[in-house]
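Researcher: Here's my situation. A collaborator sent me these components and asked whether they could plausibly form a single complex. I don't have experimental data yet, so a predicted model of the whole assembly would be a useful starting point for our discussion.
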Amino acid sequence: MNKHDQPILRLRQVCCLLLLFTLTGCHVDRTLDVTQQVLQGEYGKARTYVHKNLSNKRSEREYLLDRMMMGILCVADGHPQSAQVTFEEVYQVLRTQGINADKTVASVVFNEDVKTWKGEPFEQALALAYYGIQQAHLNQWDNTRAAAAGSLFQLRDFGKNDKGERINTLEIAQRSIEAERKAAGKPSDKEEYINSGYAVRESNFTLGYILHGLASAQLNRQQEANDFFNVAAQIDANLKPLVDQLKSGQYNTILIVSHGLGPRKIAYGPDNALARFEPRFRSDASPLIVSAAGGGQAAYPMVCDVNQMAADHMWNNLEDVREAKSVIGNVLLVGGGVTTAIAMDQGSGEAALIGLGLMAAGALVKTSAHADTRYCNVMPQRVYVVPVMITGENARITLTVQGRQQSQMVLAGLSPPPPGHGAQLRYVRLFAGFPTASGPPPGWAASGQINYVSTQLNNAGPAPLPYILGGNDVRSPNPRVLASYAGQPGIGSLTPAELENLYRDEGIALTVEDQRGFAGMHILEGGNSLVEPMVGTAGFTRLFGAIRPPYQPKSPQLQGMIKEK
Amino acid sequence: MLIRLALLSVCLALTSCATTGASRSSRMTTEDLTEMSEAMAQSLAQSDALRNRTPTSEPWVISIDRVQNLTTDIITESERWYVIQRLRSSLPIRAMSQQKNITFVIPKERLDAMRNDPKIDVSTDPNFGTQRTPTHQMTAKFMGSERAIALARTDTYYCEFEIMNFATGVPEWTDRFEYKREAVGHIWD
């Protein structure tokens, strides 16, 4: 080798090392803000943040991840309509099967991210359950039934270990490697164990069975409903009293109540090639205490513990159990490093380049060997199902996870469903706070007050005034609403079109359709939408249960009107 | 050597992109819904129930109800209305208005939704919807069965249509349309 070539080789080496560091670097956790918002119960901010940053490339993991998050957050915020398109897109992906099966070679040799991500099976089942819950809000019980049926897909069961415990993913990886060694590294026999060493099992997703039962009952298929309820009680005997109540049909309102944050996905094991889910909110058997004003108190058992689901290999997709790649990566790195060092000593430029090439290839494999720890981080830790019989208008229902005072939420404004409507369903995501913090719940959650006039409720006082004019009325303008402003200076003389224009000049959207299917943040929380969350949800409780700062007018028209007043 | 590695990479990438051509979803498609609604329109037009009707026959006012979904596949609201819309706008059905004195009207739930829609003020029109007075009801029900094993799934869909006479409670016409969708691969993968 010419001495003048040595700096060039060093430069190449530095470039290669920089490339290696880049390849082994971590990706940004862009969902951190969302988690914080969810902990505070700020589902409006969280869902609009996700909506704004929605990935539109189907090949990216975020495509499904973002949509799962957005769907869940919209339902939590009481905006099921805004979740419609999102859930349709999620469903389209989840109902496509075997989409990763053809990419095994690419995922093993190059990069796992080329796969189309469908999430862990437990995330898939929960996403389908959420779709069912969203459809039930819209009284589409037949679709709830279909979504619940979809969530009950069969699972892979690799059984127990020698100690009689459920086998974990590390043990599956070890058994897989043993099987590969026995197969003498023949490519066709790779991952033989993962693809065939399991028994197919019926699902144990109790929430799915109960949702199916609820939907069947609403479609007057009581026998079918009872069958699904019974399966849930067979899987978890604690659910027997709940199932008996559901079978009796003595309810007109179903509350699906969730609390906490589901587990986080972390990498572990050699080269962090494996992934597992670690609880953020601890699991326990605390029931949900439900009390109604003037009524009794009842305790309801937990129907779904997401920590438990995520910890069971049956609910994992096992993509991390390809630890062999990491081993290959180590071998290549060592081999490449040795080749380069020898080449440098012997002055062989070609051998050094080959060595660097091998190192780069090894690093590529190592990069993909590091388990991908992206996950749907807004899943709840637990879910309860509460059947309630609401008999009067404006019922007040208090929900508290036993022993977690911070979780308390008082729902106000619920009324019986209209005649001939069947049961109504509401999803209530309780305030999570922080896992280890104690203390009272936030004021809005426990106030039980409705401080603003709502489109959904008949709660206007004698002389209501729109919030944008300094009052507390946030109803959508229409002739009936305008009639209630009669006699009031300024606004009382407006025509319906003029009132609508007043809102539009402020940049306030009046309907979901005006906002292309997604309701933005409400004006009560500083947004530009007049679309309210559904009564009986955490979103409605947050918005209407607190006293909000006065509206700040933007348009000269409104500023002029306020001045005249 | 590097060129060989690059070629190998391209080969592997191409292999990974190859698909078997097998279907990956057993969902109903828009084509299924189109074909089904057109077949039903044809069947109704040629049915015994309508054969002897003329422009001077007693008028039939048929309310088309929302499609009920009893399959294990989600059918969105827009897909349901698409089925009804296709059916209503098909040539044989449109021709019935004059040739058979048959009118199709919106279902009651749609009317109620309009009455409760704050954007549509019908309070000043006491006659809104009163001329609807259906004499018959058309229902459409999607049913299905699913057969799944570890590596494949087959969904069979049946769509059953019925026109029932409100006065007598007797079905004037029923027919069903059936199709099958298959998909291969693990549902979780």
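Model: Some features of this prediction you could bring to your collaborator: The CA atoms of residues 41 and 91 of chain B lie 8 Å apart. The mean pLDDT of chain B is 78.
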